[in-house]
Amino acid sequence: MLDDFSLISHATAAIAYGLLAAVIATRYLRRDIDRSLLLASLVTMIWAGSLITQSLWGEPGFFIRYMLELLRDAAWITVLFALLRDSFRSANLVGRLRRILATATVTLVVLLLGSGLMEYTFGLTILDGKTKVVGQIALSLLGLSLVEQIWRNSLSFGRSSMKYVCIAVATLFAFDFFMYADALLFGQVADSFWNARGLVNAALVPLFAVNVINTRKQPVDFQLSRSAVFHAGTLLLAGAYLLFLALGGYYVKTLGGDWGEALQVLFLTIALMFLATLLTSRRVRSRLMVFISQNFFDYKYDYREEWLKMTREMADLSENPPLPERVIRILTGLVESNAGALWIREDHGDYLLKTAVNLVTPKYTSIDANSELVRFFGEREWIIDLHEYQRDPVAYNLLEIPDSISKISDGWLIIPLYLSNDLYGIAMIGNPYARVELNWENFDLIKVVARQTCNLLAQADAQNRLSRAMQFEAVSKASAFMVHDLKTLIAQLSLLVKNAPRHRENPAFIDDMINTTDHAVRKMSNLVDHIRKPADDTMVTEEVELREVVTHLAEHYSRRQPAPRVAGDPGKIHINADRDQLCSILGHLIQNAQDATPPDGEITLTLKTASGSVVLFIQDTGAGMTEDFIQAQLFKPFESTKGLTGMGIGAYQAREYVRNVGGNIDVTSEPGLGSCFSIRFPLARPVEEQAPDEIAPEQTFTGETAPKQNAK
Question: In what order do the strands lie in the sheet with 351-357?
Answer without folding.
Answer: 366-367, 351-357, 340-345, 422-430, 411-419, 384-385
